[in-house]
Amino acid sequence: MASAEEIAGELRARIRSGDLQPGDRLPTMAELGTSYEVNRQTARQALIALKDEGLVEYRGGRAGTFVRLRPTQRLVRARSMERDELGYYSGPDVQHWRALTQTEVDHTARVPEDIAALLGVEPGSPAVVRRRLNGDPEIREYRQLTDSWLHPAAVAAVPAIAGDSGLGGIYDRIEEWAGAPLVWEEEATSATPSPAEAEALLLPTGVPLLRLLRCSIVTEPPTGGGPLVVEVNDIRMSGEQFSVRYPLERGPSARWPVTPATGNFYTPVTPADPGPPGDL
Predict the structure, then answer these.
(1) Domain boundaries, the chain
(2) Low-confidence ranges of the chain (pLDDT < 50)
(3) At what angle do helices 4-17 and 40-52 cross, to 10 degrees?
(4) Residue among 88, 79, 248, 91 nearest 181 (CA)
(5) Considering the entire predicted model, what is its pTM?
(6) CB under 8 Å to 113, separation ≥6 — which residues?
(7) pLDDT value of position 45
(8) What confidence score (pLDDT) does residue 279 get?
(9) Which end of the chain is more exposed for a tag (fewer CB within 10 A), N or C?
(10) Does domain 4-67 match CATH 1.10.10.10?
(11) How confident is the model over 249-268, as pLDDT tens digits?
(12) Whole-angstrom Cα distance, residue 205 to residue 201?
């Protein structure tokens, strides 16, 4: 008698090998029960596991469960700050993208812990955030959510960025105030989408978010002090539809000609003992 994990593993392998193609119907729970000598609940758990991974979709009723058609290749998003007659945009692939919803400005939002660490404020402190949905007007699935978290000092110095920021948007207003160009840094990570994010981005069950956190920095604020992160842009998009590409530079320690290696990186080491698991 097989477990749900074993059944899911065999079906998963058939999907990944191409034995089961997109659009192919999977065995029903009754058929799986007969083949693997398991009850209906075990068969159901196996199918749910594949659905949660985004490999299959349930079409309801007697239709059954089918291998889901997934993008065969991702749109590679080259990351750079560009500019045209509308202002700044992030990469040559999205120049034609436009706002799909009106920008929502929230003046009473509480800063999440990871955003707070980048913005340099206390977690849970109040801040202004500008939320919007952008996308390709011609391709329905090509879209992203953007939450623009503003540093309170920047809002105090440039009140327009907390409302109608005018032509060129908040980056033009900030650069006018700073009298100098913004500097940007960005990191890429991933996340599990909330139900609202999945709905806005048209994500099937099991598809993760590709998440980019971009910091906008004024290196010498007119108000004095060191560099100020005036904004953190929290960008979320489908991890199935998109990937990002950055240039990877040689660091100073890897300048050519390189120093000959003196050890073997691939010699296995024993990981440190993590100790007993903590309470959840």
Answers:
(1) 4-67, 75-245
(2) none
(3) 50
(4) 88
(5) 0.83
(6) 123, 124
(7) 87
(8) 60
(9) C
(10) yes
(11) 999 999 999 999 999 999 99
(12) 12
